[in-house]
Task: inverse folding
């Protein structure tokens, strides 16, 4: 085969401007984005939480009231969304790593399941937070 | 098979390593990411459940009392170590994928490593100082 034939037979990589990304590609992007969010802000929250506990009751109450503001709650909501999504989709990734769910249908269905499970878990988590914990 | 093509005997291995050659390590990175992922599948639900059961709506003293129980302190330290390690491995891959200026990439990788190690130690120190 000549050089030109080889070049002609090579698959083209997707051109992002004209290529419609499949559902699983969006999930892959979201997985990385949520992971980055958690690695930055989730770790920072753990650091702030444990540091405020060490620092004393005043620090701790200050942090809690800061997180209790609207922006604080939105931040926690985003964090919980990322945490549940990254956890469920990470589970899907572990299936792939063990050689399962490679058929396109299976991968798509598992992805849809991850989306539904994430929505259910986040809503349930915040429902419980409001109605069982904060109202007591 | 030698790493060089014929006529390239005098190139240093660095040339291959900096282009498309293997760095001869990296499998441990992949394995550790999965190991910490599996650990987090256990620790993360525990942490999310603890937030509801013991932290939300609780006073400072109640949270300290919760963290002072040995099991909770141990799981917290495990959670801190695993989260930091998993996060470090993750952000490392992101920087390696998207940052192409060599000096900036190395600077970010070093800064991340230092930050996550420091943050993990600070968190663990805080847990011990509260729990003990």
Result:
């Amino acid at each position: 085969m000549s050089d030109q034939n080889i070049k002609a037979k090579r698959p083209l990589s997707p051109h992002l401007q004209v290529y419609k990304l499949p559902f699983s590609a969006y999930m892959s992007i979201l997985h990385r984005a949520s992971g980055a969010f958690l690695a930055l802000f989730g770790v920072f929250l753990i650091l702030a939480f444990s540091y405020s506990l060490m620092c004393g009751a005043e620090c701790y109450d200050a942090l809690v009231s800061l997180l209790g503001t609207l922006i604080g709650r939105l931040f926690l909501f985003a964090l919980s969304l990322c945490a549940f999504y990254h956890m469920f989709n990470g589970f899907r990734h572990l299936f792939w790593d063990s050689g399962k769910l490679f058929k396109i249908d299976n991968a798509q269905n598992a992805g849809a399941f991850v989306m539904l499970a994430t929505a259910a878990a986040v809503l349930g988590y915040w429902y419980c937070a409001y109605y069982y914990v904060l109202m007591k | 098979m030698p790493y060089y093509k014929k006529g390239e005997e005098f190139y240093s291995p660095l040339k291959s390593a900096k282009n498309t050659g293997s760095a001869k390590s990296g499998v441990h990175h992949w394995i550790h990411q999965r190991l910490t992922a599996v650990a987090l599948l256990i620790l993360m639900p525990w942490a999310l459940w603890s937030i509801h059961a013991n932290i939300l709506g609780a006073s400072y003293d109640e949270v300290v009392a919760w963290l002072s129980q040995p099991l909770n302190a141990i799981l917290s330290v495990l959670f801190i170590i695993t989260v930091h390690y998993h996060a470090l491995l993750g952000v490392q891959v992101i920087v390696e994928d998207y940052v192409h200026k060599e000096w900036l990439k190395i600077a970010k990788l070093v800064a991340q490593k230092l930050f996550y190690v420091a943050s993990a130690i600070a968190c663990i120190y805080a847990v011990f100082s509260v729990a003990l």
